[in-house]
Amino acid sequence: MTLPNGKAPHPDTQRPPMNQPQASPDRRTGLGFETNTQQDTSTSTEGSNGTPRGPQSELDEVIIAVMGATGSGKSTFINTACGSEELEVSASLFSCTSEVQLSHPFVLDGRRVRLIDTPGFDDTTKSDTDILKMIAMFLSSAYERGKTLAGVIYVHRISDHRMGGVSTRNFRMFRRLCGDGALKNVVIVTNMWNEVKEDLGKRREHELRTQDTFFKPVLDEGAVMVRHNHTKESAHRVLGYLIHKDPTILQVVREISIEKKGIDETAAGEEINKVLIAQAKAHRKQMEELLQEHKDALREKDEQARREIEEDRRKLEAEMKRNQLEAQKLADANFEKFQKEREAYEKKVKEDMEKAEKRRLADLEQLKEEARKNAAGSTEWLKMQADYQQRLDDIRDREHQAALNAKDQQATLLIEIEKGRRQELELQHQKQLQEARWQEQNSALNQKISDLESRVAQKDSGGGCTIC
Ligand SMILES: Nc1nc2c(ncn2[C@@H]2O[C@H](COP(=O)(O)OP(=O)(O)OP(=O)(O)O)[C@@H](O)[C@H]2O)c(=O)[nH]1
Ligand SMILES: [Mg+2]
Questions:
Q1: Which of 78, 79, 90 has most ligand 1 atoms within 8 Å of its beta carbon, as the pocket-test mutant?
Q2: CA 176, CA 195: separation in Å to the nearest integer?
Q3: Tens digit of each residue's pLDDT (9 = 90 or more) over 105-133
Q4: Which parts of 106-179 are beta strand (E)?
Q5: How many CB atoms sit inside 10 A of residue 55's CB?
Q6: Ligand 1 mutation pick, 89, 196, 229, max ligand atoms within 8 A of CB
Q7: Which residues form the AIG1-type G domain (predicted)?
Q8: Cα 169 to the chain's mean position, in Å?
Q9: Which whole-number Å values give the CA distances from 427 to 239, 422, 432, in the listed order?
Q10: Which of 227, 256, 409, 423 maximizes the CB count within 10 A of its CB?
């Protein structure tokens, strides 16, 4: 494994920061990929030996598939990487993603990236053959439209107590889908680290890396194993291991699109067949044992045991029937039938996409109409607001003017009062002066009178006329 700078990184080392995801036009056709006329032929990305030409140009879309057991966190990883909630996620025991889905494109480290979400092989509602057919249809159709994979991410919960039957079966199917040739483009992602104590997680990680029954064989062939801590940065770091890689072809795609094999003849199909044969053998053995136990119960007249054995037998028969149907379904998925199914699937996807596009256009039209109405409404509202503001301004102007007037009036009044007060003071002053003057004149007059009286008195007492 080498990074774009040519150095071999430690799987857990941080890559330099990358560009944030960006929205891009949602024009989809066919299987959800945008039309790329330059690449729209079955051989455009393929060399003479059937291997893809690489490296991918800056304009090419980088497509990465995400696989793993049900509930391992595939859809969550994709949502985290895209920074969206577009894929359904569930904490229930039932499988959540039951179809192959394509994420919206986003830009990372200068590349336009799309992730493919896949259902796990231990799906609670669909058989392994159904899942294999779905994945094979999607990937081979995409390949024949010139869309190759930059890599595959396999999600594994570090919180799993052990690599049990389901995980082992899932991983075995994953290996058959990829083939050894694509392992250099595989990243095994361990997640749910916050669900375990660090020491325990590290021990499990070490076992997964070093045990032949776990991931060691694929790591030896060039796959890498990295931790994911549930953040966008961590998801982008994981994708950083793949986005600059030369594209690869998965074994199942090569088998179908180039070697023209039926699903039943692919390595993954053969793996399912092997499991079905082993199960059929085990079922036959169980049935023989039950028949023997049934005979014993009859002989011993043990009614309770007989009823329990018959119940077990019914359950086993139902399982055997399911197994036979599954084997039949796999046998029916030969090349011709699979091609027909794929054509029907592509047609349906195309119709769905066209319907979705029509719906999108109708929604867009409705949004535009609402926007127009809102714009009209907002013009009206703006006008009302302007009127209101004008009225408010007028009132304020009037109030201001009135205040100014009142001030003027008050000032005039004060001046008048002051004037009046001064006049009053002046009058008082003059009055006082007048009074003082009168008093002065009075006292002078009184003096004269008393002088006259004293002279009259002198004359009366024998003196001459002083007046004449
Ligand atoms: N703690 C923790 N929980 C996670 C992480 N990734 C996913 N989960 C939770 O695991 C549960 C299953 O996640 P999904 O993304 O639906 O898993 P899936 O692999 O897509 O499942 P299917 O679609 O059923 O195959 C959800 O409850 C997630 O919230 C993680 O990194 N850490
Ligand atoms: Mg899912």
A1: 90
A2: 30
A3: 899 998 999 999 999 887 678 889 999 99
A4: 106-108, 111-117, 149-157
A5: 13
A6: 89
A7: 64-230
A8: 32
A9: 105, 8, 8
A10: 256
Q: Which atom of ligand 1 is nearest to the CA of 195?
A: 1
Query: Per residue in 169-201, pLDDT tens?
Result: 899 999 999 999 999 999 999 999 999 999 999
DSSP sequence for 390-444 = HHHHHHHHHHHHHHHHHHHHHHHHHHHHHHHHHHHHHHHHHHHHHHHHHHHHHHH
Q: What is the DSSP letter of 29?
A: B
Backbone angles phi, psi at 117, to 5 degrees: -90, 135
d(CA 271, CA 285): 21
- Pocket-forming residues, ligand 1, beta carbon under 6 Å: 68, 70-76, 89-91, 95-97, 119-120, 191-192, 194-195, 230
Tell me how crowded residue 386 is: count the other CB atoms within 10 A of its CB: 10
Residue bearing the CA closest to ligand 1, atom 29: 91
CB 260 within 8 A of CB 296: no
